[in-house]
Amino acid sequence: MSPNGQHALPERPIPALQRLPRPLYARNESLPRQVGTAWHSHPWVQLSYAIEGVLHVHTSAGSFVAPPQRAIWIPAGLEHGVISSAHTEMRSLYLDCAATAWAPAHCRVLQIDRLTRELISRFCAGPVEYDPEGADGRLAQVLLDQLHGAAEVSLSLPLPRDPRLQRLCRQLQAAPDDGRSLGQWSAELAVSEKTLSRLFLRDTGLTFRAWRQRLRLLSALTPLEQGQRVTDVALASGYDSTSAFIAAFRQQFGCTPGEFFRP
């Protein structure tokens, strides 16, 4: 079972790099089907980015989701696994720690604006061993400057430390439409509802209801990006109506599903 509650996926190989050939290294991949990686870490920073498809990065602290126009910043040394949706076009970057000393030491999702997107595409089309003093080296520096200023967006889901809550969360990740109340979960886990509520807030910073809603909305991003009907996605996510789903989506992300995926 994968970290997000799914069954094991075909495994995507991890490049066997001993060191980065340059401070900024690009990796292009076309992934026609859903695949995942084994949990691993790098001695460098990784920017997981896809121009098509949705990426999910899982760490011990939580999960991070990047539809197009967003990317996941993974610090050096952080154990993580990556799941990509079907028909994903990845444009990953590996970054030397010396070139990113300004970055915070935690995993986060970044907004990728049009300029940064074009810079990534252009850099990924260039030579691996570029001339650091030439045009490609200057392009790499501009790209690093753009990433330095990229805004962080709330596309993450914290995971609890308590084993009882972890069991609950794994089941909800496997079935986001599960509508059981906190009281019903407390009976199944043999712990009081009050205790569950307190632990949820302590471990995740969210109430049970808010955590489940964020899970449902983040889980909906992949089928929405793949063009499934909003009504079908809403029902599969546990909402009683399309209007309720859109209202929750707007509350969480500040826009409608259609606006969210607009380039």
UniProtKB/TrEMBL annotation:
Domain of life per record: Bacteria
Cited CDD domains: cupin_NimR-like_N
Species name: Pseudomonas benzenivorans
Higher taxonomy: Bacteria, Pseudomonadati, Pseudomonadota, Gammaproteobacteria, Pseudomonadales
Keywords: Activator, DNA-binding, Transcription, Transcription regulation
InterPro entries the UniProt entry points to: AraC-bd (IPR003313), Homeodomain-like_sf (IPR009057), HTH_AraC (IPR018060), HTH_AraC-typ_CS (IPR018062), RmlC-like_jellyroll (IPR014710), RmlC_Cupin_sf (IPR011051), Tscrpt_reg_AraC-type_HTH (IPR020449)
Pfam families from the UniProt entry: AraC_binding (PF02311), HTH_18 (PF12833)
Domain HTH araC/xylS-type per the UniProt entry, residue ranges: 166-263
Name assigned to this protein: Helix-turn-helix transcriptional regulator
